[in-house]
Structure formats: structure tokens, C-alpha cells
User: Which sequence fits this backbone?
């Protein structure tokens, strides 16, 4: 009798036996062993050591460069246009790298499971019956946590190249495509809606002025006041650009068959990736491309900007990407402001799509020094109100579940973090727990962290409140993961600690000085027991620990390299750099 391979959380597909192999940790996030008497075997998580990460990232990077050029050619043919590879890379590049990683990881997990036990069977759907497309690139990341979408993607991988290695039983899932129901929509109150609608009317009326702005600044991470000020320093009319657009549902069957990126290769993994990439393409690049391009032509944004500036619109904002790519084709410069730290990531900044397509990359600090990088400051920290009166003794920031779009098992990393939260609650004395306030991310309809913390009567803070308000009101901030917020706390000189399990396998060479500093000053902990011990030791006089002369001196050095706190001259200096680089 064959043993069963459990591939996803979709329980209707399960055919449990006495011995069941589990594909990866994502298949078990909501699974409770106690409800079943069967035996479950979970192999070591795939790809979590640093050398494997680097090797796999290099594979994805090299393959994405090749496929990007071929996909650009195919999209030109499909839309009857003649745009450059850079044009299509701006629009599709982040999506393409992500989708290659998604296929890569699931393929490798299957390969690993079959290397452990060659006597397996599992269920799989009929090829192409379930449609793997998403409406846009943002929906793809949500799809990576959808059990049905994962089941059908894994089925396609199994049917394409691995079916001869495993016995498959046919099973069709209920739906025919992915519909994202996980997005959290923040409801605007009446006053905010009124102000927004009023601003839009003023924006349209004043278009005759700001249509000639030389700089288009959108989603810059700067505060609204700082955006107004930087526009004035650039000698142009301040404008905020809103683009709330509802991409219609529009899907045409067999349309993706027209995209040919097939290539003869002996690499079975590459064959699988090339086969599946066209079927995962969002409607925003095919069916809805003309709609988005037409909207981009009509939208009241500058007609001939000399430079486009953004901090995060480059990834998921489909309208922005198409508009920006069109302007860049005409000679407009493209400037990216650093959004996150990338510290603790095996990916080099220069391997990110946004870095590759921009003309200049504006950094938070001085740590990366080459012709493309411009040293600036942490854009998130302008106009932060640092309060003397503290309302929160200990603020604990949680991560929430990881999207599964990497070349390694991110759910395993989340499991370690969640286990750390549970252990921390278990070992800390009650008098400390009573002074702790937890903030969780409300990214999903269900949140495991919230359920657990509520069951332990732990105080929870609203995630809708600006995080910097909480930071300014806290005596101590504990990050339960390697967060960009650690840099914000260091820059703002807010006492902080963070939990980073297995940090040795989540590093690139840019991290060394930061990690050395955090380990030496007892800010970084890879053991929850050590974090708890340090917390108990310092809680009565946090200032005595945090204000040590060497700690403060080294903190200033690290912040200069990684996250500069803006001062009164920072915006003026930034405006000068922007003006110099636009030519």
C-alpha cells in the first residue's frame, strides 16, 4: 500500500492512510493533529539554510532575466505594440520573479518528498480545468495562502513533470478560479470620505497648474506635510495623486495559450516554470491591459514629468506601473525611494526588480555606495511626534502569517515566530505580562496570533492606529520578528529588542555591522528564553540599559549607515539631490 502525500490544507482532497507525508509547513498552518489518529511525517523544511537560499535566488534571478525578455516580446506581439524590455519589466518584473519563486518552491518540495519516499500517492486535478490566473499582481500573493489555488498549482506541476514518479488519484476542486476574499478594506468615516471627495474636485479643477509638474511624487513614504514641502522646494504645485480604480473581472479562456515562452532545455524545473508562467499571468497584463492603458492616458497626472518618484507603488499598483512605464519610454527618469530594509534577507538589493529598473535608488543611509545609490534618510520618519509622556510600558509587535512566494519555507519561519510568542507568554511573570500591549497585523480574515492572545487575556491594541503613535508612547518596543521597525526605533532612540530565530541563515553581507551591534548590545535574540531573561533583568530601569554610553555611540553609527533620522535640513537636501539627478 502506498503512503499518502498531503500537499495543501484543502481537506476535501485528503486520502489519509496509516502513514502520511506532509509537503511543507504551509499545508499545516490550520491543521490540528489531535483530531486525527493517523501518523504524519513532516520532512525538514526546504531551502532554509543560507547557502541553499543564495543558490536558489541566483537560479531565479538568472532565469527571470531570460524569461523577462521572452515575455516582453510575447506581450508586444499580443498587444500589437513595440515597447522596450524595460517597459514590460517595470510592469511585470516583480510579478514574474515572484511567480517563478512560487513554482520553484512547490516543485522543490515535491522533489524532496519523493526523494524521501518513492512509494507515495496523492490527489490531483485535471490539467487546465482550474484557472490559475489572478486579477492583478497583488492577488497573486494572497493566492499563495489559498488552499484550493495551491492544490491546483501543485496538481499542474505533478501532471506536467512528476506524474511518473507518484500515483495520482483524480479529484476536482469546487471552484474554477481564485477569488480574493482576504483583503482587509479599511472603512473611511464620513468626514474622511468628504475630505477626500472634496480634494479630488480641487485636484481636477487645479489640473491646469500641476499638469506641468516636473516631478511626479506618489506613495513616497513621506508624511503628507513633508510631501507638500518637498513639492514647494522643487518649485512646483503640491499635489496628491489618488488612483482608486476597480479592475473589472474579465477573463478569456485559451488566451494565455498564445504566449509562447517554451524553450528546449534539459532542466525539468525550467520546463515546468516556462509551461506554467503564461497561465498565471494576471488579467491586468492581458484582458485588462487596454483598459488600464486607456485610463492611464486620461488620468489627471502630469503630462511630461522629468522624473517619477515612488517608494512602493512600483510593485502592486497596476495603473501607476503602466502610466510610469509609458512616461519612462519617453525619457522620464525613474527614482525609487527605499521602502524596507532588506536586512536579514538573502536577496541583494541590486537583485530586486525595482532597483534594476530605476535610474537612481535613494537609500535610508550610507551603507551601499555605488553610482546608482543616493544617500538620504528614512523617509518614514519625517514629522514623527516624539512624546515624553508614555502610555504603554511594553509594546509587542507581531508579524502575522507569511505569504508563500519565496524559494524557502516561509511558513516554517512563521511557525518559529508564533512558537516564540506562545513561549514568551508562558515564561514571563504575570507582573510583566500585565504591562504588555500586543499589536497584531490584521492582514487576514482569521489570525492565529489574535486567537491565542485573546485566549490568554492579553491586551491587544488596534492595528488601525498609526504605528508611530504607539512607538512614541512606549517605554520599550519588542519586535517578534526581524522588522523594519527595529530601524525606526533605533533612529527614534526608542528602547527596543527583537526576536530573530535562525538569523544566521537569513543574512546578506550588508547585515554584518547591524547584527554585530544588536547582538553585542542585547537587542537581537535568537532564543526566546534569552529575550525573556534580558527583559526581566532590565524592565525596572530600561533607561539604564538603553542609555549606556557605548550603546548610544554605536547606535548613532549604525543609524548613519542604515537609517538616518531626518532633521530640519533633510528635505531641502533631498530636493537638491532630486534636481541634480533629473537631468
Assistant:
Amino acid at each position: 500500500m502506498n503512503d499518502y502525500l498531503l500537499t495543501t490544507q484543502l481537506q476535501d482532497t485528503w486520502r489519509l492512510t496509516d502513514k502520511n507525508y506532509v509537503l511543507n509547513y504551509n499545508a499545516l498552518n490550520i491543521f490540528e493533529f489531535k483530531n486525527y489518529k493517523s501518523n504524519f511525517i513532516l520532512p525538514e523544511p526546504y531551502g532554509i539554510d543560507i547557502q541553499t537560499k543564495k543558490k536558489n535566488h541566483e537560479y531565479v534571478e538568472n532565469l527571470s532575466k531570460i524569461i523577462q525578455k521572452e515575455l516582453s516580446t510575447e506581450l508586444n506581439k499580443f498587444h500589437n505594440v513595440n515597447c522596450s524590455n524595460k517597459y514590460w519589466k517595470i510592469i511585470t518584473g516583480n510579478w514574474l520573479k515572484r511567480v517563478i519563486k512560487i513554482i520553484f518552491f512547490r516543485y522543490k518540495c515535491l522533489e524532496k518528498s519523493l526523494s524521501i519516499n518513492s512509494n507515495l500517492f496523492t490527489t490531483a486535478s485535471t490539467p487546465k480545468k482550474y484557472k490559475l490566473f489572478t486579477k492583478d499582481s497583488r492577488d497573486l500573493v494572497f493566492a499563495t495562502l489559498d488552499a484550493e489555488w495551491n492544490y491546483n498549482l501543485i496538481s499542474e506541476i505533478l501532471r506536467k513533470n512528476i506524474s511518473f514518479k507518484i500515483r495520482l488519484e483524480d479529484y476536482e476542486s469546487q471552484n474554477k478560479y481564485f477569488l480574493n476574499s482576504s483583503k482587509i478594506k479599511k472603512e473611511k468615516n464620513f468626514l474622511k470620505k468628504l475630505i477626500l471627495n472634496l480634494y479630488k474636485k480641487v485636484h481636477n479643477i487645479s489640473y491646469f497648474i500641476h499638469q506641468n509638474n516636473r516631478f511626479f511624487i506618489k506613495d513616497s513614504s513621506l508624511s503628507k506635510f513633508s510631501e507638500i514641502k518637498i513639492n514647494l522646494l522643487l518649485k512646483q504645485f503640491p499635489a496628491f495623486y489618488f488612483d482608486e480604480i476597480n479592475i473589472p473581472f474579465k477573463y478569456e479562456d485559451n488566451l494565455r495559450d498564445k504566449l509562447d515562452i517554451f524553450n528546449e532545455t534539459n532542466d525539468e524545473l525550467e520546463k515546468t516554470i516556462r509551461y506554467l508562467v503564461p497561465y498565471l499571468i494576471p488579467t491586468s497584463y492581458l484582458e485588462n491591459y487596454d483598459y488600464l492603458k486607456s485610463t492611464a492616458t486620461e488620468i489627471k497626472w502630469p503630462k511630461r514629468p522629468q522624473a517619477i518618484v515612488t517608494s512602493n507603488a512600483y510593485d502592486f499598483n497596476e495603473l501607476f506601473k503602466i502610466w510610469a512605464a509609458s512616461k519612462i519610454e519617453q525619457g522620464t527618469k525613474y527614482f525609487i525611494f527605499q521602502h524596507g530594509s532588506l536586512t536579514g534577507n538573502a536577496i541583494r538589493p541590486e537583485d530586486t526588480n525595482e532597483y534594476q529598473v530605476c535610474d537612481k535608488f535613494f537609500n535610508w543611509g550610507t551603507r551601499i555606495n555605488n553610482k546608482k545609490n543616493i544617500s538620504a534618510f528614512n523617509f518614514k520618519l519625517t514629522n514623527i511626534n516624539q512624546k515624553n509622556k508614555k502610555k504603554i510600558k511594553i509594546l509587542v509587535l507581531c508579524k502575522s502569517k507569511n505569504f508563500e512566494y519565496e524559494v524557502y519555507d516561509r511558513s516554517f519561519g512563521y511557525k518559529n515566530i508564533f512558537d516564540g510568542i506562545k513561549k514568551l507568554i508562558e515564561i514571563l511573570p504575570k507582573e510583566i505580562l500585565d504591562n504588555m500591549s500586543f499589536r497584531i497585523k490584521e492582514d487576514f480574515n482569521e489570525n492565529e496570533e489574535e486567537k491565542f492572545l485573546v485566549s490568554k487575556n492579553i491586551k491587544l491594541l488596534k492595528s488601525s492606529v498609526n504605528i508611530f503613535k504607539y512607538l512614541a508612547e512606549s517605554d520599550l518596543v519588542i519586535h517578534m520578528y526581524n522588522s523594519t521597525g527595529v530601524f525606526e526605533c533605533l533612529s527614534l532612540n526608542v528602547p527596543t529588542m527583537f526576536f530573530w530565530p535562525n538569523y544566521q541563515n537569513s543574512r546578506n553581507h550588508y547585515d554584518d555591522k547591524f547584527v554585530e551591534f544588536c547582538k553585542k548590545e542585547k537587542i537581537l535574540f535568537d532564543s526566546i528564553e534569552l529575550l525573556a531573561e534580558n527583559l526581566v533583568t532590565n524592565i525596572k530601569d530600561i533607561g539604564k540599559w538603553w542609555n549606556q554610553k557605548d550603546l548610544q555611540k554605536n547606535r548613532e553609527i549604525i543609524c548613519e549607515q542604515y537609517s538616518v533620522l531626518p532633521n530640519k535640513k533633510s528635505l531641502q537636501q533631498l530636493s537638491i539631490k532630486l534636481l541634480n539627478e533629473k537631468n
In short: The CA atoms of residues 127 and 350 lie 37 Å apart. The radius of gyration is 25 Å. The chain has 22 helices and 16 strands. The first strand starts at residue 3 and ends at 6.
